Amino acid sequence: MSTRNIDPLKVAVLKHIRNLIDCLVNIKDESGEFLMTLEDGRVIDTKGWNDWEWTHGIGLYGLLKFNEITGDKDAISIALKWFKQQFEIGTTKNVNTMSPLLTAAYLHEAGHADYFVHLDSWAEWVMHDMPRTEEGGLQHITYLVDNYQQLWDDTLMMSVLPLTKIGLVLARPHYIEEAKRQFLLHIKYLQDIQTGLWFHGWTFDGRHHFGKALWGRGNCWVTIAIPEFIEMLKLDEKDGLRLYLVNSLVAQIDALVKYQDPETGLWHTIINDKTSYLESSATAGFCFGILKSLRLRLIPKEERYVNAAKKAFQAVIANITPSGELQKVSFGTPVFDDIEGYKQIPLTSMPYGQSLALLALTEYLRVFML
Fold it and tell me: How far is CA 16 from CA 11, 358, 359, in A?
């Protein structure tokens, strides 16, 4: 067979992707440092693959996206196996454990499995029983903390996108209307009108942004979620909500282009603070979001946007080890009252780092190599 038409970069990217997936499902917490002990005695493994937390939800979504573009059956098999095991065990409902239901909704829609009872149960919980802030925002309740009256930028990815997709799959338009309202409310209280970037959190209890952190990975969830939401709902180009979301997205991406590290292509964990460390998982999320925004024509195909995405792609590639581990990934991060707290978060391989890199490389493959 002739090899003249084989693109060596495409081959290399596919190899990186398969290594990322292998590392994703085989990551282990050898030291126990990243185990989460709950009040009832349960121990949640946030680093390993065989547990249920937002870290795994993002990993599952990465597998789904890779399958969408390449038809890779192993990616779906891994996801189906995870759901079989975890649905049998069950977990506590919170803003983060909702995240795997996004992939579950897609798998259910495609006929890979019947997850109706799970989709119905979790979405109804979000609609009627999930704690709310003033103005009806989804309170960022987690395994360990209620986060009373708090909105976090993570919530759009972890709970609002799953609610949206379940609304589409189960033909429940009131879910979709609620998701639209949550996007508008989170933009209202979390996007910084001066920079265009997003604060990590807002509380109605005292009405402030804590340490006013423009945190990298929190911002990347928004760069991902807005294009996903627009595409999911097939919003028309003249749709008022779409225009509002695109304005928000463009303001953020313009700021990201400004703050990208020119030498490495990475972003700092506090985006506008050069004394904070450079971080890979946020960079991968920004890479995916900017690329998808270009593909959906939410931003013009201008050199500054294309170059930012390509530099981010190269930065992600540069931080993947031969075994498929994405390095320079910050551990799960709460909202801090000061910037220094973010700088002290340790770096370690995590499922969401693997999957954000997987999303970035898969989108790059779709935009430039198909």
Answer: 9, 9, 12
